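Dear support,

I submitted the protein below through the web form. The confirmation email said the job was done, but the results page showed an empty box. After a refresh the structure appeared. I'm attaching both so you can tell me whether what I see now is the final result or a partial one.
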Amino acid sequence: MFDLTGQVALVTGGAKGIGKGIARVLANAGATVIIADIDEAAGKTSAKELGAHYFYLDVSNQESCKQVVAAVKRDFGQLDILCSNTGIFPQCNLATMTEQHWDEMHNINLKGTFFMVQAALEVMRTRGYGRIVITSSITGPVTGFPGWSHYAASKAGQLGFMRSAALECARDGITINAVMPGNILTEGLQAQGEDYLAQMRAAIPTHTLGTPDDIGHAACFLASREARYITGQTLIVDGGQILPESPEAIQ
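What the results page shows now:
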């Protein structure tokens, strides 16, 4: 376990799912963790459970993002780690997708990443240190799935943003990387139904779904001091899902 004692970490979308797993692992590594989420009830409950703190956040609102980062600096004196994790993934086929569907997805997943990273960089640059970890996905950058073209575009966009942003702060002691989860057993994934879960398990060489803590451990590594020489990179955590050339390869 990497030691994050004395570091302050902000996890967006940390009330549930992958975000909660990231928050839990960072807290266990010794960081002071702030969960920022639009779901106030779940956010406060998770913060209490993990010994963390909670701030309300709407990542689609730039002023909300700035206010949360300012509050972290005010209350804790520093911001060492940002895990920009907030995301949504409602399914919608391309034939029936509306501009509203598209905009909602990108406002939260992609624009929200931009807002949070921009706000965090302003604080991190003053100390010459920072670790930013973006939660992307294998869907979009590597794979595709019917009904998630808008989601896939937002997740691929995050990686393009990350690589150029990493160059802009490479000399400031700040790294920006991304984790790319496969199928992780969260509340959102469970809502897709057992048929979907069984289909996903069958497509994964381990025949298991990942846990939020699996993503948390990957994020913890990229957020550590030891990962200082890694920036603009991605880490796939998917149980080998993208490896097989055909279903016969994993029967």
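Response: this is the final, complete result; the empty box was a page-load delay. The mean pLDDT is 96.
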